[in-house]
Structure formats: C-alpha cells, structure tokens
Amino acid sequence: MIEPPPERTLGHTTVLFGENGGKYPQGNSIVVAGTEESLILDPSLGMIPRREQLPPVDRVVNSHSHEDHFAGNHLFPGVPWHIHELDALGLRSLEDMMTVYGYDEAAERYMRRALVEEYHYAPRPDALTFSDGHVFDLGGVRMTAIHTPGHTRGHTCFRIEPDDVLCLGDIDLSSFGPYYGDAWSSLEDFEKTLDVVRRIEARWYATFHHIGIVEGREAFLERLDRFAAVIAKRESRLLEFLRQPRTIEEIVGHRFVYRPQDAVPFADPVEKRSMGFHLERLAREGRAREIEPGRWLAD
Length: 299
Fold this sequence. Notes:
Elements: E1 7-10, E2 13-16, E3 29-33, E4 38-41, E5 59-61, E6 81-84, H1 89-92, H2 94-101, H3 105-117, E7 128-130, E8 135-137, E9 142-147, E10 156-161, E11 165-167, H4 187-198, E12 204-206, E13 213-215, H5 217-241, E14 246-247, H6 248-254, H7 267-284, E15 288-292, E16 295-298
Parallel strand pairs: 4-5, 5-6, 6-7, 11-12
Antiparallel strand pairs: 1-2, 2-3, 3-4, 8-9, 9-10, 10-11, 12-13, 14-16, 15-16
Helix pairs in contact: 6-7
C-alpha cells in the first residue's frame, strides 16, 4: 500500500501536502478547525486518494479560480463553497472559466477537456463570495481574507489566528517565479501584492505549491526576494533579446516564462500575455518600442 503524502499540524491548522512536494498540478491543501466549524482551503488533486481519511468540513474556501485549486471541490458537494467576488465567475460555469484564462483556440480546447477529465470541474453558480477583510470565524479560530490580486483578479491570501499562519496561495516562493499569464492576471497588481505580503508578519508561511511551510520572517523574506526577482530577470532577458528587431511570434517562441523543452499546452498564450505586460512597461519607460505592428526593438 502506498503511503499518503505527509501532513503537518500547526495548532488548529493542518497542511495536507500534495504529491511531488505539491508541484503543479498537485498542491498543498489546508484544513482549519475551530470549536464550531471547520473548513478546507483549496482542495487539491491530492485530496482524491485521501477522500476516506479527510475530516468532515463545513465549508470549502478557494484562494482563487484556477484548476489545481478547485480540483477537489467536488468531494464536498453538500457544503457552501466560498471564493473572492472577483473570481466567482470561474466557478459559475465551464464557459465562464474560459474567460478567466483567455487562451487561444488550441489552448482553450485542451483546457476544456482537462478541466472536466483531469481536474473534476464542478460548476457552482451558487458559490458564496467574500471581499478583502472578510473573517471566517470558526469558533476560537479566525481566518481573515487578504485580497492579493495579480495572479488572478481575486487571488486571496489568508491569515489564520491564533496559529499565526499566513496562507500564500500561488505566491508560492518557487524558483519558477510569479505567474501572470491569464486574461485575469496583472503584472503591476502582482508587484503591488508582493509589497503587501512583505509587510505581513507571521510565524508560519504556507504555500500551495513546492515549498509548503516556511518558518520565520527572515526565511520567508529570503525566499520572497528570490521569487520576486524572477520578474526583473524575465524583463532583462527580454530586453537583451530585443537588441535585434523581434516579432511577437519570435518572442513567444523564445520562451521567457517556461523552458523551451517544457511541453505545456497553454505555453504560447501565457508567454504572449506575460511578455505583453513587459513590453507595455518597456514602451512606457522608453526602453523598447514597436517599430512596426507586432515588431519590437530595444532602445
């Protein structure tokens, strides 16, 4: 019998680690239990083989509307689901979820199939919404929503007290760096969010992917700096690439977010949108210009 991935309890908060260290498409889910209620935050694919061992919960909360974060939602059909009001569209229907991604035809075709067959997409038009500052009071335990957009419009971190845990969602502190490649992403909002979370002090910092749990502010800031620095590295690489005139297609094909060898079905639209944010900024700052439609050169 294969042993399930480990878990770790921090007071009233239990982190259920995903397979492969929570590497995408896996993730680390969190159960928070008070004296009156309990909830699960971001039920991942890893909850499916655990379904018989999962504790009963009164609520499902999603940090944002992405496939890997709601892949286990369907295991809890009889309880309310909660998501930030700006991301609620993604739970409303499969068609609406496509709006969140904003992919081209080929990538959308892949994702429509994957959402149903691999991520167990279950529409929930009656999902309850919350906004910044909302408190889930579980009885002696409070989980407070902190709106942290950029990854998506409604991406949310959560502060769990009295456990002194900050749940970071997809501010995952990984070497991959920030992801801002969807229609509902924003590079500038993500950078503002990084400044916001930098100022939040906690004992424990929990990520959905990769890292899992970081203890102490010093260790957190070290990882956050490396994570944030990826944005500048991408922009620097793009500028170097634009020393010669380059088309959008050449920029997409060069790969600044994913590695060229990564077989990612939605890589092209993600590269196009992510680098589009950087091109807009470089143009505003006079560091690059569009010398003809769809063709760019560094200044």
